[in-house]
Each structure stands twice: as C-alpha cells, then as structure tokens.
Amino acid sequence: MHNIRDIEVIMGGGRKYMFPKNRTDVEYEQDEKARGTRLDGLNLIDIWKSFKPRQKHSHYVWNRTELLALNPNTVDYLLGLFEPGDMQYELNRNNVTDPSLSEMVEVAIKILSKNPKGFFLLVEGGRIDHGHHEGKAKQALHEAVEMDQAIGLAGTMTSLDDTLTVVTADHSHVFTFGGYTPRGNSIFGLAPMLSDTDKKPFTAILYGNGPGYKVVGGERENVSMVDYAHNNYQAQSAVPLRHETHGGEDVAVFAKGPMAHLLHGVHEQNYIPHVMAYAACIGANRDHCASASSSGSRSPGPLVLLLALLPLGILF
C-alpha cells in the first residue's frame, strides 16, 4: 500500500489485515476471527484508493459477483480481497462469493494486456502448500489441478511469440506416491497390496512426516476402517508432527515463449529472475533488445511477461 503504489492488479485473501482491529467483516459478520486486526487503526483499502490518480479508474471488490461484473476495459487498478484470511480450498470454495484461481487470472490478464509495453503477472497456487502441511493430499492435489487449469487458460489468452511463461515451485514436500498401483486405480485409493510387515492396507499417497501419524492399540491404524477418500483425510505419515514439512529435493522449472531455452537442466533459484529480466529487456543486459537489427528486422523488444509460480510444493 505504501512502498509499491502502482501495482495494477492485486487479488487474493487477507481482508482482515487491511482494517482496524475488531472491524466487522463484510461477509462474516458474526465471526470474531474474521474481524479487522490492525492495531494502528488504519483502513488500508481507503489508503489504496486515495493513492490512485484521479483520471484512473480503481476498483475494490470483495466477492466473485463484483469481480466478474467488472468491464476490464474500464479498469486501471484492481484490488480484490475475497476472504478475511486465506482463500478457501478449491474443494470448499463458495461459487457465489469466491472466484477460482482461473477466474482471477482471466480478469488480471484482460486488465494488464491493455498496456502496449507488456506486463508482469505473478500467480501462486498458495494453498497447495497448506494442503500438504495439513496432510490433506486431496485438497493439495485439487489445488494443483486448479493451478494447472489457470496456466492453461493463461496460455490461450497470450501468445508464444511475445509471452514468456515460467512455471516453477519454491520447494517440494515430503509427499510420496507408490505401492505399485495399477492403471485406473484412484490416486486417493489403496495400494493393491498389504504391508508385508503389519499385514494392513495402505494408501497410495503417504507423507514422510505430518499430522497423519496415528497408532491404534499400539499398531498402525487400519486405513480400511476409515474414509480415506474424504476431502480432509490426512494421509498416514511416518513421523508425528502437527504440520508436515517441506522436502529438500530440486523442483522443476518449465518455460515456454521467448528466451524459454535459457531455462533447462538444473539452476540456482536466483538465476530465474535474471532470465525473466533478460527476456523482458529490463535490467543491466539489454544489448539484444535493439529496436531494429542491421538487416532491418526487429530483434526482441519488451515482452509481455507472465510468471506463473506453481506452488509451494508440488513434488515433480
């Protein structure tokens, strides 16, 4: 709100952090946990609005209906805060009040693509991480599917000729899938074999640690006696923790569009923003960005730049 005032599009959760302490939430009026939290008494929504130039059109929205009713052609700045805290999991999302990640991406691109100089868009499937930390693999994987759909939609709305799309993660999780499951077996189902040690079934998805650790009668819980297909089922883990941890292996980075060939193999994470800056012709190295080459043909200029940050923790 204060440091970077000219970001055109911001969407997500966190509404309660913008209002003074105990301010009643517009959506959850009876929920004390949804009330404002700021001890400085500031209303950051009003501050955000006051910073915008008068000749520009700024919009604050708090629900899906308001978001989808906007005409992107008449929106210069958009702030959308759809939950007091975190966005709801996709499986739990209220289709009336909360937009999907794909819907937010669509609106963002329509607004940002009006800029003839291009744009940078950061998209995060942040609740993938939360699902894994809670041991709720079904929630995490449905979040990943929604992220995949958002990436696909972004691809249809942009061009490979002028858009660099980067998809990566900042870490993995101690999440695993195995047990020699046959084709057609539900990923949330049981492996087609019993443990050769305790003679009990086990699910194809497991965690190295986390809240799914459970001992019944001194032995590992028999998962055939529980609803392991439930949305909030916590997959069994080897070590009991209230929250599952991140993993330590390398994560993948995928790219398409101009300069995508610079992202392949294994890289240090700090290399990625340098590639994006190089592709977008910003920063120190812009020798390749002349408006015209000696032959008269155009060489790369400023690109529409889309970065999709795939989660907080898909294990590739």
TrEMBL record:
Keywords: Biomineralization, Glycoprotein, GPI-anchor, Lipoprotein, Magnesium, Membrane, Metal-binding, Zinc
GO molecular function: alkaline phosphatase activity; metal ion binding; phosphoamidase activity
Topology within the bilayer: Lipid-anchor; GPI-anchor
Enzyme Commission (EC) number: 3.1.3.1, 3.9.1.1
GO cellular component: mitochondrial intermembrane space; mitochondrial membrane; plasma membrane; side of membrane
Cofactor list: Zn(2+); Mg(2+)
Cofactor binding remark: Binds 2 Zn(2+) ions.
Residues annotated as binding Zn(2+): D129, H133, D170, H171, H246
GO biological process: biomineral tissue development
Binding residues annotated for Mg(2+), in chain numbering: E124
Subcellular location: Cell membrane; Extracellular vesicle membrane; Mitochondrion intermembrane space; Mitochondrion membrane
The family this protein is said to belong to: Belongs to the alkaline phosphatase family.
Protein name: Alkaline phosphatase, tissue-nonspecific isozyme
Biological source species: Cnephaeus nilssonii (Northern bat)
Lineage of origin: Eukaryota, Metazoa, Chordata, Craniata, Vertebrata
